[in-house]
Structures are given as C-alpha cells and as structure tokens.
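Field log, afternoon session.

UNIT: design team B
ACTIVITY: writing a sequence onto a fixed backbone
BACKBONE:
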C-alpha cells in the first residue's frame, strides 16, 4: 500500500499542457494528505511564456531548478519588479499580485512553485479581458470600444503561449525585494553530514507564509529527528535518494524511501528525520508553511532534561546516561558514525 505522505511527482501527467510548456500539480486533489500547502512544477520551452496571472487565495514561492527566465511582478501601488531566474534563485509573489514568467534561455525553464494553500486559485489577464465588454475595456484605457473587437471573448485562460520576440534581459542583482539567489549564499550550517541554506524572513523580509531551505545531505548524512512547532513541511528531492521516518500523534510510525523527483508532506509538529541512503549527495528544496519556521531537535531535547528524567522513562539509573552529550541547541545535520 502506498504511503499517503509521499507523492511521485515526476511520474504524473501534467494537468495543463500547452504547445510551449506544461504545469504538473501536487495539490490536495492529487495529494490528499496536503494541508495548507501545495506544489506545482512549471516547465516552459524556449520563448514560452506563462501569461500574466495572479492567485486570489495564496502566496507563491518559486524555486528555479533549471534554465533561464525573466519574471515581472506588478504589486499594489503600481510597483514593478522585473528580474532574471536561474538555477538556485527563489522568487516570492504575494497573494493577488499579478506576475508573468518567460523562458529567455535556450533550454527548458523549470520552476517549483509552492503555495500556502492546498488548493490554489488562478485568475489570468486573458480571462480578465474576455470577461469585460468592449465599452468597459475602451473606457479603461481611453480608447474607442472598436479597438477590442478583434479580441476573442473567452474567459478560458491562454495559460502558456509563445512569445514572438524573446526578451533581452540585462544582468540584475543577486537579490532584490522579491528575489534571492539561494545557491550563491553561504551555508548557515555546514559540517561532515552536509549543509543547509535557509531562505526565511531574515534573508528575504518580504516573505509571508512561506519559506524554503536548500538542504544537502552527504553520504551517511542525516537530518536529525526534529519537528516544526509552527509550520508544515513540503519537500522535493532534487537528486540522490533518501529515507524519512515520521511519527504521528496516534503513535504511528511510517518509514518511506524517496527517489529524485519525489515530494513528501510532513505535518506541523510531527517528529521526522531524513537520511541519505545512497553514495551520492541527497539534495532537497524544503518548503515550509511559515515565513520563519521554528525547529526543535532530539539533540537539544536530550540536552535539556536531567538524566534522572530520562532514566525514569526507561527504569534505568541516572548514571547510565552520564556519557550522554548535553547539547544546548539543535545539531540539525549529523553524520552516521562508521
């Protein structure tokens, strides 16, 4: 029987397929265990463009897996943000802000799009024009209604189309208010077991309701057993192989293996661990349903309580645990002793 917390993302057929690209969804309708989070994989061929659109019920946090793109976000107050996308770049789009994505490279552009709603909603610019009369559209832009007569009156979005001329993007900064190159920053945690690069509200202050950590587990590396008091976790295994153990409040233990392209959902407050099960590094994009996810690990737990407390749980004398190292904070990434 398949484990409900794992979803084989890359084995799914796209929900939306167009001439110049596709979108594959892991939303609640496809991945029922989800709660308050969802993930999509957007693929755009060269010159492919995802039409301007917005999400009425969800913020969006994108992570670029491959290719080169250009993104424009229009926010309230007429604020425009235009920036390039390349592997390792994350981009945040607040709920309701209209945004556009274009492939300006020669290879497919692939983006992971995480939402802080398990059933995100879309509205598009093409549907918006199709919903309004020529008279209203003319008045909106100070033109005669006849200008809009040739536009098809359809509320079905065009979604992905081919741009006639590719954009010529100027190099931009690694970081602006909605973008940061996560691959370019220094790891906050680095040891023999691997490293972690967190993109939370401290790194990108505009984040709201979402964050993402770039995690690399080396051979025999382990993300120590832990839980997140304030956030669900939705992770995507980019490369390698891994194993997760999940303990739920009904005292149910589930252990499942992931291969590259799989995602898993770990509910808020549930204890879990992640370990690399292969010879190659296991690399994750780990999304959280909070802009500042909190963490409690077993290493700090065992350091926080007296040996008498721990011994009483197992009917053992306190001195049995005298050799236990009393870490005062999470170790986060550890390595199996060989």
């Amino acid at each position: 029987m398949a484990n409900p917390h794992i979803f084989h993302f890359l084995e799914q057929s796209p929900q939306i397929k167009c001439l110049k690209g596709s979108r594959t969804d892991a939303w609640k309708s496809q991945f029922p265990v989800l709660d308050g989070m969802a993930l999509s994989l957007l693929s755009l061929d060269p010159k492919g463009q995802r039409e301007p659109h917005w999400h009425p019920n969800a913020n969006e946090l994108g992570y670029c897996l491959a290719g080169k793109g250009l993104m424009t976000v229009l926010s309230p107050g007429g604020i425009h943000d235009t920036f390039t996308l390349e592997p390792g770049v994350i981009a945040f789009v607040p709920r309701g802000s209209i945004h556009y994505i274009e492939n300006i490279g020669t290879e497919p552009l692939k983006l992971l799009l995480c939402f802080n709603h398990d059933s995100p909603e879309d509205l598009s610019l093409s549907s918006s024009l199709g919903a309004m009369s020529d008279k209203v559209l003319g008045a909106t832009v100070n033109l005669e209604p006849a200008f809009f007569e040739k536009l098809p009156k359809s509320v079905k979005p065009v979604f992905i189309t081919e741009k006639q001329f590719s954009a010529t993007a100027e190099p931009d900064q690694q970081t602006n208010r909605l973008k940061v190159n996560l691959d370019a920053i220094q790891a906050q945690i680095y040891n023999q077991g691997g490293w972690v690069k967190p993109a939370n509200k401290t790194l990108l202050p505009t984040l709201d309701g979402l964050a993402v950590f770039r995690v690399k587990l080396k051979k025999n590396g382990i993300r120590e057993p832990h839980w997140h008091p304030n956030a669900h976790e939705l992770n995507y295994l980019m490369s390698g192989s891994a194993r997760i153990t999940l303990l739920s409040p009904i005292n149910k233990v589930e252990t499942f293996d992931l291969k590259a392209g799989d995602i898993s959902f770990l509910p808020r407050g549930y204890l879990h661990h992640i370990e690399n099960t292969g010879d190659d590094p296991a690399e994750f994009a780990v999304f959280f349903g909070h802009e500042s996810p909190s963490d409690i690990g077993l290493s700090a737990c065992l350091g926080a309580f007296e040996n008498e407390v721990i011994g009483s749980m197992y009917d053992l004398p306190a001195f049995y645990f005298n050799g236990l190292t009393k870490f005062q904070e999470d170790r986060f990434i550890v390595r199996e002793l060989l």
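LOG NOTE: The longest strand covers residues 38-44.
NEXT ACTIVITY: expression trials, pending approval
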